[in-house]
Backbone:
DNA sequence: AGCCAGCGATACCTCTGAGGTATCGATCGG
DNA sequence: CCGATCGATACCTCAGAGGTATCGCTGGCT
């Protein structure tokens, strides 16, 4: 199975439409149809049920979509990490650390300072991304290491070290009746009339269905809360980002959030090991 | 990057010889040379230093060898798991569980019975393999789930549940002076004159350098011990396999061995979930 | 009921590029 | 200094990836 075939199949499986998938891939529709047919013939498996009007995935197709994405990420990671290794030999780039924009705002500077103080430390490029994107960046080699937050982010398939834990606070628009409380419970926050939890993208970059506005990063989120259109439960450390129009109230029974440093399991780079060591010593 | 290029590069990187690699791949040497050159050009990276007499990996080449193997395993896993999913729809195969031949001889029957008693349980094919092979089989999709033994086996990149823990015993040839002791320490076992620890294959299937005979499975291992050519420290449960010519003596300060059930992180199959549930209830 | 728009499959052509054979050029062992 | 070994180069062939034109089926609209 060639990566070209996998790319084509993943495109069709995501679009469920040969024409759009072909456009996305920058090829014409007929070769795409043929490539999928050939893939099905070679695997001796029906991946898609096509009824001239609609395309749907078979059970085997679902499996190949999931596994194929992982395989394509692994190939992309091999490509990127090889390029970076070559650059590293000539001296430049160092490590790419990715974290959610707005998160870990206290921990991150401490970590970078501690690592920079190590002998032989390389420059660290900090990459900020939207909610739920880190996993992908780490998996396909665009980042070397990430700060993740359990239980929100999946750490499946990565090596991790725990860095810190904290409770969570509910964020409410200033002036909301509950802002006078000293603490809340989850069921009180869940039931707030007119203040649903916002939805953010899952690992595939799509927004799940349901009520609540869509939020891609913390700026959008805070704005939605200030506008009285949403509420959210976030780690305590988000207090350092609070604006005057948003108020934080501790939520006693919310799950504890653990910040972990995560990296792909095969990584053997000395630079990465040094960063992890610095992190665990904080 | 196409999987063909990755396969070619991995072959050359492993053989460090274009002719032999080409033979292994079933192609002629010139196209292989050209394919590697093209890969290097496309990556803009030198992967191999060739001095007309010898071929060596550059640092970037080492990275691509490691990452490329992982990527090829992921592609192979996508292929195999898709085929199996299609077969599962027509009714046949169930799950493939892999464990070291000779290990978990008590736990395994209990696990299989417990799972078989579940409603909707599928047939489980048990695959026995040599030491250090399970990781590979799980990673490239030939197996769905494995019983691994920490700290011997790496569980990096898999989801796991702990099943049981046990101490370790030293295995000595019958009649050896130390067999009269009630217990030993690691340093006593390490220092046994003429009884080195055997070597077994690492994750790449090669034997590490060093003293001691090579052992591929427990049968070979026991034979070597009975012959007075080696000793070994293994989990207590290996006692059930003891032959009359091999004696087990507890080693108090050897690390505790934990048997875990491990599976690839993306797996979402109901059958696998049922097996893991049965395992954790044991 | 009939027509049209939308979509995947098919037919047929082109040309890239993967693979083969023959050979060169460099290097190391004897 | 010679021959064996090994990777690179030159040159050829052909499988197959991709493009255009078109077909055939289906569902919605008038």
Residues:
């Amino acid at each position: 199975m060639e990566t070209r075939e996998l790319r084509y199949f993943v495109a069709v499986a995501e679009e469920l439409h040969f024409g759009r998938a072909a456009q996305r891939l920058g090829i014409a529709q007929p070769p795409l149809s043929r490539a999928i047919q050939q893939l099905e013939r070679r695997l001796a498996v029906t991946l898609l049920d096509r009824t001239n009007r609609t395309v749907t995935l078979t059970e085997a197709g679902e499996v190949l979509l999931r596994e194929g994405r992982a395989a394509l990420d692994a190939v992309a990671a091999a490509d990127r990490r090889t390029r970076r290794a070559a650059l590293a030999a000539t001296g430049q780039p160092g490590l790419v650390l990715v974290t959610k924009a707005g998160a870990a705002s206290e921990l991150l500077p401490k970590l970078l300072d501690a690592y920079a103080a190590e002998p032989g430390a390389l420059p660290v490029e900090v990459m900020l991304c939207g909610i739920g994107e880190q996993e992908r960046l780490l998996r396909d080699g665009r980042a070397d290491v990430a700060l993740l937050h359990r239980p929100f982010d999946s750490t499946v398939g990565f090596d991790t070290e725990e860095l810190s834990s904290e409770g969570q606070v509910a964020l409410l628009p200033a002036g909301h009746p509950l802002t006078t409380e000293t603490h809340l419970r989850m069921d009180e926050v869940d039931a707030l009339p007119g203040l649903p939890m916002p939805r953010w993208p899952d690992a595939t970059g799509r927004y799940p269905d349901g009520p609540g506005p869509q939020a891609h990063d913390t700026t959008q989120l805070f704005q939605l809360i200030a506008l009285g259109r949403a509420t959210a439960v976030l780690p305590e450390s988000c207090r350092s980002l609070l604006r005057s129009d948003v108020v934080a109230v501790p939520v006693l029974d919310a799950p504890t959030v653990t910040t972990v440093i995560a990296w792909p399991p095969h990584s053997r780079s000395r630079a990465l090991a040094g960063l992890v060591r610095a992190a665990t010593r904080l």
